[in-house]
Every structure is written in structure tokens, then in C-alpha cells.
């Protein structure tokens, strides 16, 4: 599979410590770098958002220049792959704007085979600024769909796939309504993108069966559970203890935000954590307060680190994305056996507990939205409902009296 990505080529720095911004194209373990003509310091390039840092006066122009080359290469690769004759020489020959538009016009009426269409749609998503977990889900779904479809269906036009076949495929994910609908949504993403590639709306997935999603009840900790759990973790696993403490005290998400914290994220004498939009799930600049009981544990560690060091690994490279999931899975067996936690309580239960406590104390949904970093108030309301907290007082007041 051909992959392509806009990256800062840090193999060799210039005398001014800048690196070239390039589009890196990979095929069969061979790599070619297309130069954008832009040179940047590492701190001026955001690999997650694929944008030049706003601290540069001409950041918009530079980002646009880089994006134009990326899109040009993307279109050329799509055209070449339709012919199944990809080579770097052919790609270099076809990235001139005139050749690309002419080829797109010539091929717009051609029907892609289903196999090629799925391959192209997946490649575009894999090279987008999406979470690694989401990319893995799309890869797995794409692989399973390719195995499910017959040889004739894969060779035929994607528009000839009947909706009933997608219904049959989705029955493989009938374990629960939530699981089924998540896979249906991912399948819809791929087919919507294929529709854009062939310049023809594809509504196949929309006609497939919908299933009712049963809401899961997230379980918070009782107030009496908190200190015994934290005391146990402090002795058993110091890094997991620190992660749990931060999850409870700062409202940050353990796997996406806390795991990636560096010393540089702590400001104002370590009393606040400042995260840019690309460093948190909500996509907005986020500021959280660090309580004194957390600083007592953190400050001795932070004094030993460089600004770019991760607070858990104590080096620039963070722990892997499964680190705390694995540590919690091992620790919870012992804690359940000792009666410290219940089976459905998780690492996220520390965050749930803090949210429940605040809501009970203030009844301020907007403050809770801000602290949790939710994108909209609707997300916060759904979150509270999943905790069984929304309208609890109204239900209590409405209970029949004897």
C-alpha cells in the first residue's frame, strides 16, 4: 500500500537548525521525499494538526503551500492506483497541475473496482490527522470487509454492491447494539469517502439496519473508596498511582492527555497545566488547576526533568499508548480480591467520581463542561446521564409518599 504524509524531515538539520518540510511517500519499503521548499524549526511544526505554528508571522501562507503540494500528490496517487501501475517515477511525472486535472477529468466517469476503492479510501484516512485507535478500527474493518466480499464483488464496480450484502456483513458485529452501530458508522465513513473519490453519492450504508444502543452505566467510586485505593496504588505501582491522582484531581483523560504530559505543560510554579488544542481530545486550549496534594507528589519529580521530558518515562518519549491500560488490568485483579474496587470500576472512574462530586455540590453543568473539556453542553449532559446523575433529585422528589 502506498502511504503519504506531510512531515518535518529531521534526518539532517541545516546550519540554522531548521529542517525541510516534505511529503514522505512510501511504497514497498521504498521512500521518496517531495520537497515543499519550506524549512522550519522543530517547535514551529505541529505534526498532529499538520500546521505551521502560529508564532510565525506567515504561518497561514506556509501551511497553505505545504497543503497544496500534499493534495496534489494525493490526487496523483489516486489516479495512478486506479491503473494499478504505481511507481515513484510515474508519480514525479504526474504531479504537475495540468496533468492531474486532465487525468481526473478523463477518469471521473470510470468505475473503480470495489477492492481499489476500499484501498484508496483507507489510504486517505490512514494519512489523515486521526487518532491511532480510530485508524486501527478502520484498518480492521476494511480487512474484514475485503475477506467477506466475493472475488466477483471485489472486481466489480463499488456501485454494484447491494445494500443487503452490507447488512449481512454487519451481522458479524452483533455482540451489542453499541458495537454494531460503531462498526456501521465506520463503514459509512469509508463509503462516504469512496463516494467523493468516484464523484457519486453512495448511500448504501444509510439503508442498512439500525440497532438500538443500550446506554452503559459508568460507575464512579464511593467517597470512602478513594483514599484506600490511592494508598494501595502508592505502595504497589507509583506511576499508576500518579496517573490516577491526576485523573481525579485535574479532570484530564488518562490515556490521551495525562500519559503525554511533559514538564513543559506545567506552568505558574507547577500550579496549572496548559494544553494546546492538539494535545487534548476537545481540540481547544485547555487550562486546569493542580491541587496542592498533587503538587506534593509531582514537584520533586518535575525538578529532576528537562522541559521536554515526559513526567512518567522521564525522557522525551512517552510510555506506549497501552501502558496504563495494562498496568490497571494487572492492578485491578488484586484490588477486586481485596475488596477495594468493584468489577465495573475502571481508571476512568476517578474522573467520573470528580464529576459526580462537583455536580452534586454546584449543579452547574456549564462549569462541569469546562472542567471536563467537553466540546458541547450536550456531551456533558450525556456524560451525566451515563453516570446516573442527571435528574436524580427530581426523581427523588417525585417518589410516591406513604
UniProtKB/TrEMBL annotation:
A Pfam family of this chain: Arm-DNA-bind_5
SUPFAM superfamilies according to UniProt: DNA breaking-rejoining enzymes
GO molecular function: DNA binding
Residue stretches making up the Tyr recombinase domain: 216-400
UniProt key word DNA-binding: yes
Keywords: DNA recombination, DNA-binding
PROSITE patterns from the UniProt entry: TYR_RECOMBINASE
GO biological process: DNA integration; DNA recombination
Matches recorded under InterPro entries: Arm-DNA-bind_5 (IPR035386), DNA_brk_join_enz (IPR011010), Integrase-like_cat_sf (IPR013762), Integrase_catalytic (IPR002104), Tyrosine_recombinase_XerCD (IPR050090)
Assigned protein family: Belongs to the 'phage' integrase family.
Identification of the protein by name: Tyr recombinase domain-containing protein
Species for this entry: Mucilaginibacter polytrichastri
